[in-house]
Amino acid sequence: MEQVGLEAAGSVSLWGLFIQAGFIVKLVMLGLIAASVWTWAIVVDKAVSYGRARRQLDSFEQVFWSGQSLEELYRTLSDRQTSGMSAIFVAAMREWKKSFERGARSPIGLQMRIDRAMDVTLSRESETLEARLGSLATIGSAAPFVGLFGTVVGIMTSFQAIAGSKQTSLAVVAPGIAEALLATAIGLVAAIPAVIAYNKFSADAGKLTARMEGFADEFSAILSRQIDEKLQPRAAAQ
């Protein structure tokens, strides 16, 4: 009896449960492990990229509000690969310069074109910030159900084996039940970090986007005043 107890105890180790699992349950476990690895890869990538984005926003705001000439700042940034507020600024200034080079006459039309250019760039930057967050949401919502599916299949297989052996002792039942529940446990291990990370990074993306929207509104007001200064005397002379 003691030997049987030792064999049963050995069979409920995590590796032993995985090895004993059926093909479908193993497939479910491997898929959930892969989803967990993908989740942590996204978490690390987003933590690094969002930190870099915050530093870039802080750096650009410091330079922009330092009193430096807009033309000089545009010349500095126009040849670089920009992102965030820098990309919004470059898009607006590029439209500004193109419009005046072509002899813009309507302040309203020019303002609309500049705002449209900033909106398109802002939308692109927001999409970049939110990239792969959908994967976290999918893993967080689906992983527990996938794990539960593996558990149901494992329990069904275990009960079929019990019925075939006609033995219902705890030593016979426990490994099969534990094997089935392992799939649910792995599903939760994959889902919980994904849900937490999705909520945090969604909030962070929203804050970064709000900062860029605020800058776009402020810069639009600055350009609107300069448009009035440039085009109103021209209109009055005509």
From TrEMBL:
Bilayer topology term: Multi-pass membrane protein
InterPro entries named among the record's database cross-references: ExbB/TolQ_transport, MotA_ExbB_proton_chnl, Tol-Pal_TolQ
Residue ranges constituting the MotA/TolQ/ExbB proton channel domain according to the UniProt record: 110-213
Ribosomal protein as UniProt keyword: no
Sequence intervals crossing the membrane: 12-44, 133-156, 176-198
CC per GO annotation: plasma membrane
Keyword Transmembrane in annotation: yes
Subcellular location: Cell inner membrane; Cell membrane
Main location (coarse class): membrane
Biological role: Part of the Tol-Pal system, which plays a role in outer membrane invagination during cell division and is important for maintaining outer membrane integrity.
Cited HAMAP family: TolQ (MF_02202)
Record text on subunit structure and interactions: The Tol-Pal system is composed of five core proteins: the inner membrane proteins TolA, TolQ and TolR, the periplasmic protein TolB and the outer membrane protein Pal. They form a network linking the inner and outer membranes and the peptidoglycan layer.
Protein name, as recorded: Tol-Pal system protein TolQ
UniProt organism field: Shinella zoogloeoides (Crabtreella saccharophila)
